[in-house]
Amino acid sequence: MRLIVFDVDGTLIDSQAMIAEQTARAFTAEGIALPDADAARSVIGLSLPLALGRLARTDDPALIERLVTRYKGHYRDTLAEGAAGREPLYPGAREVLDRLHAHPETILGIATGKGLNGVHRLLELHGLTAHFTTLQTPDHNPSKPHPGMLLRAMAETGAAPHETVMVGDTTFDMETARAAGTAGIGVSWGYHPHAHLTEAGARSIVHDYWSLEAAIEEAIGA
Length: 222
What we know:
Number of strands: 6
CATH class of the largest domain: Alpha Beta
Helix content: 40-55%
Number of domains: 2
CATH architecture of the largest domain: 3-Layer(aba) Sandwich
Largest sheet: 6 strands, parallel
């Protein structure tokens, strides 16, 4: 048995443009200076309240709640206007997920800072709902890099830490894996520099999806 847990934004889905757009609209509505692109990328992967609070440099719960509400409202508006094609899978993701899903000893999971409704929407959009057995989000877990998402995924599936790997594009993913006692594989096409992923504890770094299966086998076996 092996459990492969994927992050979503920056790992499976190229959602940077959508995230940046909704963040900018929320900040503008509150009269807050827009964060630069590097700062915005640095918090992708955290739960939305934590990410927006860090970007706004505030711990004021009322302001954070307003930012979250505006962000989600603008996001819903964008979807209502038709956002098809704006949240694509990264090249090769579909083929690799299909093969992993077909592997008799493999269970797939999600651990993400995105809300559960958003995860369901994206999986349905891309026809991947049946691929994933366990879905872990901030709706019922602490934000990364707390290990709660991986610990819960393992508890739900019966996987042990040595049978589990976290695949992600941020240091938060690698720190989560390390805290949970699992392997972490970093992907270089996402939002954090791959050198930072190595420093955060990544077992290896892959530069395209076609290299991922070999990295998984090296980390936790076939």
